Structure formats: structure tokens, C-alpha cells
Amino acid sequence: MRPVSQQFLDAVRDSHKMRAEVIAVPGHQTGVNPTGTQIKILGGNVVSDGTADVRASLDLTTEPALWPNDHTDVLAPYGQELFVRRGIEFGDRHVEWVSLGYFRVESPAQDAAPLGEVEVTAKDRMAAIVDGRLVAPVQFALGTTLQEAFEQLILDVYPSAVIDADFDMTSVVFNRNMVAEEDRYAFLRDLADAMAKDFYVDYRGIFVVKDRPDPAEPVFEVNAGRNGVLVEMSRELTREGVYNGVVATGEGADQTVPVRALAVDDDPASPTYWHGVNQYGLTFGKVPRFYSSQFLTTTQQAQAAAAKMLRDNLGLPFSLDLAAVPNPALEPFDPVRVLTRDHDYIHTLQTVTIPLTAGEPLTATTKDQTSIEIGLS
Fold first, then answer.
1. Is the Cα torsion angle 25, 353, 362, 12 positive or negative in sign?
2. How is domain 132-210 classified at the architecture level of CATH?
3. pTM (predicted TM-score)
4. What is the 3-state secondary structure (H, E, C) of 18-80?
5. Taking a C-beta distance cutoff of 8 angstroms, is the pair 84, 100 a contact?
6. How far is CA 138 from each of CA 149, 161, 177, 180, 200, rounded to the nearest angstrom?
7. Nearest-CA neighbor of 6 among 329, 231, 223, 326?
8. Where does the record place the DUF5047 domain (predicted)?
9. CA 307 – CA 314 distance, rounded (Å)
10. pLDDT tens column, 188-232
């Protein structure tokens, strides 16, 4: 969850005045307080999907006068960026803002031109990495650090980009030559996967390589009733997209036999138990996923990658779709406690939609991922 004060979290549960801003920002700024030109908001939202290559996208409706007639106009799709934030204005007129990120303008559209409202779609900065396919292979020699590889491929697209990791990327060294062929993003994503990390652009406009939050430690409570925020909820049980085993294979340095690891659901109390009948007499069956990467060069790396992918897909095959009073600090993979009249759930958020106008709920999809005990071999 993005950092906010307790006062902010308390205000979400009470009547409050919401504020939202969209700012056209020059110069590829980062951080939560950029400078630029405010854009009038007539409607829109920010959708964050933790499973997508480009995690966050913006849909914005604004006034007709902002239709771009020149390639330098703020809504022209030639690299212009929009910074979005939502906040709460307190009684003393102080506003606590929550950044929702930086978005590259993709497409402005206008029905009933020239007097109709302008509809803008935009994507976070990862879109440029996805688009920026390599025109020639890039080779990284034995001894190249992970930090050097990420910097070379990202700074080539965004020279002023900031990269943030929750581990020392200079301590991870390639023990064989590596080649990035065409797909810049896929190469970086696979590197992050090999480190058992997620790779995305966060609310500060920074490229991050980090672990997901602990799914068993909820950061926010979504409840109905007095001081509650839950508006409505639907729920579904499905096997689709659920694996209870992951086989990860790679290439060992100067070895003919590739490294290999298997991670499985090893909890007899789990409904997706790998080893046959669980303690409740139920058999989910063996449903493995297979993953292969040139970056897995040690058994330890293969085990870590397999365990991460299993965590990402494992858990009760149970999802919730919910609408709630917006807490704009929530992000994909944040664990939340959902309290209803008949049950108490701890789920991780998969997608989160934050509206930019008052009176609309936050919508989200979730998945139960708390019952995880992983066996490795």
C-alpha cells in the first residue's frame, strides 16, 4: 500500500471531501510532487492490473479546448506525460495526496468535434520499455552485474530513469554470456523472474524490482456496516489459472545438464495439495506450470523462481469482485481483509480501479493466496 497517514485512513471511512488532479508534466520527472500544467478532469479512472506487462493505465475525460492541434500540445501522443493523484481535503484545507503514477499519452479522441469532450487513454512508463524493441542484439559479457544490465536497457529508453530494488543488484553477476535479442521488456522481466522479483513502474514513476507484500498480512480492512467501506461484492470459485506445482528449468554455467527445480503445494490442509488426497479427503490433482529461462543458472535460482511463481498462482481457487469507498493508496497484490456478514476473508488484490471523480466506488478483483506451504525439490 502506498504510504498515507492514519488520519487519511480514518477519513476514508467517514464523510470526506475528495480531490483529484491530472498534471501535464514535462521532462520525465519522478516523485510525488512534479511541476506542470493542470488538466481539467470531467471523468476518468486509473486501472492497475498486477498481472499485466504495463501495470497501470489512465482513462481521462477532459474539456474540448484541450484537443491537441500541434505535436507539442499537452495531450498529443508524442511522449507527453500526465501525472495523476487523488487525495482528501481536511477541515483545515490541507490536502493529503496519493500519487497514482505517471502516464504516457497514447490516444486522444473526440466525438462531436470540435465541441465534444476529449477522451484520453494513457499508460505507465513501462509501455515505452515494451514498445522499445531492440533493433540489434545486445550482449552482456560474463561478469556483468544485474544493475548494469537493467541500467543499460532502461536508460537507453529513459535516460533519466530511476531504478529501485529491494536487494543489491550489483552483487548479482552473470556467470555466462547473455544476449538480449529483440524483446527488451521480456529480457528484463525474465531477469526479475529469475531473482523471484516483480518488475514494474510504481506510483513515483520509478522502475522497481521487488518482492510482493506478504499475503498473510492485510494492510487494509474492507468491511460493511458502521464505518465500513464495502459497497457491494460478488464471489466465484474457479480452478482456472490455479497451479499447484511449478517446474523451473534453466542453464547451468558450462554444464550440459540444465538446472531444474520443482515447487509444489506441500500443505495437507490445502485444497490444492499436490500429493494426492488432502486431510479433508479431497483430491485437487496435479496441475503443474512449466517455466524456462536462460537466467536460471543455479539450483538456488531455479528453486526461488519456481517458489515465486507458485505463490503467484497458488491459493484457494476463490475470487472476489468488490466495490468500495475509494482508498487510493491500495495497489495490486496488497493483502486486504474483507469482512461480510457470513465470512472473514484475507485476499490479495489483483486489479484495482481508482475513480477520479466523487461519488464513484473503487472496484477491485481479489484472490485468496494465504494457504501456502511450499515444498521444493
1. negative
2. 3-Layer(bab) Sandwich (3.55)
3. 0.92
4. EEEEEEEECCCCCCCCCCCEEECCCEEEEEEECCCCCCEEEEEEECHHHCCCCCCCCCCCCCC
5. yes
6. 10, 20, 11, 5, 22
7. 329
8. 45-169
9. 10
10. 999 999 899 999 999 999 999 999 999 889 999 999 888 889 999
- Cα torsion angle, 361, 362, 367, 368, sign: negative
Closest CA to 251 of 171, 177, 310: 177
d(C-alpha 195, C-alpha 134), whole Å: 23
For 2-17, how does the pLDDT look when each residue is reduced to its tens digit (9 = 90+)? 999 999 999 999 989 9
Amino acid at 209: V
User: For the chain, what are the domain ranges?
Assistant: 6-124, 132-210, 245-316
* Among 289, 242, 293, residue whose Cα is nearest residue 263: 289
**Grid cell at residue 113:** 468535434
